[in-house]
Mannose-1-phosphate guanylyltransferase
Amino acid sequence: MRLVLLSGGSGKRLWPLSNDARSKQFLKVLSDEDGNKVSMVQRVWKQIEETGMAGNSIIATSSSQVDMIKTQLGQDVHVVTEPERRDTFPAIALAAVYLYSVQKCSLDEVVGMLPVDPYVENRFFGRVQDLEKALLDSGADLALMGVKPTYPSAKYGYIIPDNKSDDSYLTVDYFKEKPTEQQAEELIEQNALWNCGVFAFRLGYIIDLLKERGMPTEYSQLLRNYHRLPKNSFDYEVVERAAHIVSLPYDGYWKDLGTWNTLTDEMAVQITGKGIIGKGVENSHIVNELDIPITLLGLDNVVVAASPDGILVTDKDASTKVKEYVEGFNSRPMYEERRWGWYRVLEYTRYAEGNEVLIKRLGINAGKNLSYQMHYKRSEVWTIVKGEGIFVFNDQLSHVRTGDVIHIPLGAKHTLKATTDMEIIEVQTGSELIEEDIFRTSNEWEEIEAICKIKITARHG
């Protein structure tokens, strides 16, 4: 059985810590058994490793999340990258084609799909593996895993079985998306299950579906034609049209940590970052990524979350509505983790005459390097405030250290490798300070060094 973890979306329900570049699954707000801070994706990947499934697992994600996944899980994790975000059906189709044409999996291989961030026990993943037998024994198009409800929730979708189901698996009659609590009570009496977004299919089922639609089943070709795939959910494009679906019940602990009220229930401490909660305050949390302290007095059942992107103060019961209020916030992310480290935006100004200034603080981990790049719409000034490294400027290498100031004009190729942990204050000045003005030659340091050696040989030859 192959496993595909779906990592997409911006996770605005956990604003201001989550944004378009740092989705909820990457927030290090949970704790492992040693008390270390871990993210949802790190917790799930460790469980997959412990249950022996990591070697047959890949992660399907968008290009903006690849660096974060590699940083948190390691460079060896297999990642399938969408060329653009187009919902879950295109992402799953691309992952299926990758398994088929790149990893050469058989059309009879069973593929399991699950979100990258469920909060579960290890035995949950054993039940995921049981989907393979249920699918093959039943001859169904799809096999879904459903969680036995512990209360009539109006937040989840429900899987309703028919009356002819046997003990080994349930035959699905229909689905109900986010019913009222009264409707949920009635559904639970019919043995309905929470839909936790975990399902399996034979690889050939999706490959045949793509062929019927005239879509390529070779990975590089599908990448080029990705825009032709319908921008729809897998539920709408496949599940609702499947003739035969079965479901496996799971009676263990499961929780979707998609909102502040559910996430704080699983946090080991009340205060993350600088903060004080007054005596007698009950069931309140502070999550603070800023360098200034937050003091919370006399307010029960609230969350105060602060990051460079903004500050949220909310009653926990109302926290589920955060997304609808911040959906229109389209400003640049103020903090990102990258494969080489992290950066934080300190200030951004756009002047009336059109010139822009952006000030960042960058942290580059020892042994890591920035991409070899150039810009045509901005110049940069770097002030090294911590550590030392190797700077490359137009194919020439030099050693730099704390206190050095580096001027990088328009059109100059440049990069930096940290030999110790480094921090830099970067001041960008130009007409348009956007990601599209980064033209990369290489990400790999060995390639960059080789380019410089060729230039040195040419100069002295």
